Amino acid sequence: MPARSVSRPDLSAIYEPISAELAEVERRLTSQMATYQGVVGQIMGHVERFAGKRMRPSVCVLTGRAMGTITTVHYDVAVVAEMIHTATLVHDDVLDSADTRRTVPTVNTRWGTEVSVLFGDYLFAKAFALCASIENREVLLTMAETAKVMCLGELLQNVNRFNFALTEDEYIDILTRKTAYLFGSCAELGVVASGGDGDARRAMRDYGTFLGVAFQIVDDHLDLFGDEPEVGKTLGTDLDGGKVTLPLLSLFQHLPADQRRDLQQFLARPDAEGKRREVVRLLDAHGLTETALDRAAVLVRDAKDRLQVLPAGPWRDALEALADYVVVRQR
Q1: Is the pTM higher than 0.85?
Q2: Containing structural domain, residue 163
Q3: Residues with pLDDT less than 70, the chain
Q4: What is the CATH number of the domain that holds 123?
Q5: 39 in a domain, yes or no?
Q6: Contact 217, 292 (CB under 8 A)
Q7: What pLDDT does residue 215 have?
Q8: Residue 66 maps to a domain
């Protein structure tokens, strides 16, 4: 990835103010995942190795702590969000034909497509079984709406594969649905579960949404410019799968019509080799290697602006640092 002037924050240091709460989230998540023996238990144990940054649970806990005390509802929302996220990763790896996730083989690689799809569905079902036990109807309705929006986002992305007429607004809309909506719900429900409402609730929904869109834009950038061992998953799958992302949209806007047509025809060929290498070469030649990161940085700035409604303190500081982390991460 091209070098940037901003140093990479330490995620563990960002999470330090909620370390005890995140330990409880992990305990509850492990309890939810350790339900069955046999093959299902083996797959459960395998996907626990996908454990990543826990950003969605952390956003919920941080906004909750900024507003007041943490309740059981915060923990349940955090666990439900992480289970939904894990289910989408399992399904994404099937759609992308990815071999690795967090440096370990994907479920698809180990157990095949059918098992992966069914297991992802099972994780969704487990998440909503837990969600249904939350004694807060508003939380349940919000998470149900979130799942619906996320599925629609994934569907829209899938039906727009190799749609080179996709606009930037349509691309951002897909990202908002498939990735950012869950971030927004976690941030908003952290406030709700602490008894907050009004301006704080709306601002945290915006914070999470901006953060989530920026996160996905950086993810799309890393699929081209990342280092596979560093990122920890199969890269180049966006181009191979026909996903039209912001770096590609930026390139299309700068290429003459004939070169744009030639590139689109090349990318549409299923047997074409070196797609990632060629797109990276063209982006570099046109000075566009950091265009997506610049757009993500603007969204992060907007996200941080929304934090002014929260009381000053270590939890607001952590939310600011988490936003900064999004644009300089390399995995």
Answers
A1: yes
A2: 11-316
A3: 1-9, 35-37, 51, 232, 330-331
A4: 1.10.600.10
A5: yes
A6: yes
A7: 97
A8: yes
